[in-house]
Amino acid sequence: MDLVKDELATGKKLRVLTVADTFSRYVPVLEMRFSHCWEDAAATLDRVCRKSGYPKTILGDQASEFISRDMDLWAYQCCVTLNFSRHRKPTDIAFIEAFNGGFGVGPPGNIHGSISICGLCCTNLFRT
Q1: DSSP string, the chain
Q2: Domain ranges of the chain
Q3: Domain topology for 2-122
Q4: In the chain, is it the N or the C terminus that has fewer CB atoms within a 10 Å radius of its CB?
């Protein structure tokens, strides 16, 4: 589980919640919003897990949306263990980081040679 950040030409920030199963390579969630908080992440995870089952463990980075007490409570109620990567160590969650890099989101201002998030959304490549 990870959050990808990008910025529109107008300066408005986008955040994409990405969830991927590292074993099967199945990606049940790519959810784009202008802002994500723990409630959004928990609601999205809950919606997806009701369809495909709750995992034993969710591995993610230490984004503020994932390390809140309320997200921990959600995980406890759903019998899910939250594991977090070490601070500033993207190699701990290499699969999701590589996946995020694969859909063309680069550093802010990198508009050449990459597919835009809005373009992906408009062509229905996002599953919501």
Answers
A1: -EEEEEE-TTS-EEEEEEE--TTT----EEEEES---HHHHHHHHHHHHHHH---SEEEE---TTTSSHHHHHHHHHTT-EEEEPPTT-GGGGHHHHHHHHHTT--STT--SSS--HHHHHHTT-S--
A2: 2-122
A3: Nucleotidyltransferase; domain 5 (3.30.420)
A4: C
